[in-house]
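S1.2 Input.
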Amino acid sequence: MGRERSSNNRWVSGALIVIFLFLIFFIPSFGWTLRTWLSPALGGSTESNNASTSPNDSPSLAARNDALQAQLATLQVVASQLPTSTPNAIRAMVYSRYPMNFRNELLVNAGSDEGVASGSAVTFQGMLIGQVQKVFENDALVQTIFDNDLKMPVRIGANGIDGLLQGGADPVVGSIASTAAIAPGDVVYSAAPGIPYAQPIAEVVATSTSADSLFQQVTLSFPYDINNVETVLIMK
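S1.3 Output.
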């Protein structure tokens, strides 16, 4: 009885093997289906096997890696140059100006779609560096305080002495009363309409008398290099 059962099992196994071989060789679609079923048991899904063997995936992975590296660099710049909370301002990145490294203007990657308005104050690490001059859909042009055409009312020191900031490669504050007491280290801050009041701009380095001897003027120092500014805040 046992021998008869064992013989029957061998016949059944042999018949199944013959049927499988017939289906694999004469019906290819069955062979691909069988491979799909068996692939997890043989070491992974067909997706992972294709990913490891397909030569077309390498450029795609390299491109995604480059994109992630660029995003990481951007985030590192933002983290190093901007405060963490800016409820009343719009963050913007400064486009590269190389090789024409002008100091008088900046082009930033925020425009009317982000709520940027012409005349808005632009700051860097809490310092006023200019105003929005032109607004485009996704970009804006910023006139910095290093522009020869910029003139802005300011105040100086704890006594709020009035002066007029004249932009340029080396900005100065002029039209200061000849009797005003000003000392090196006094802070120059904004006092112009349309700009947040008392936004710091620079510090006084030295005082001198104007060419007509009627006023004082002061030279300034800035705690940043405009050429290294990569992120700004645009006030809403």
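S1.4 Remarks. Residues 41-53 have pLDDT under 50 and may be disordered.
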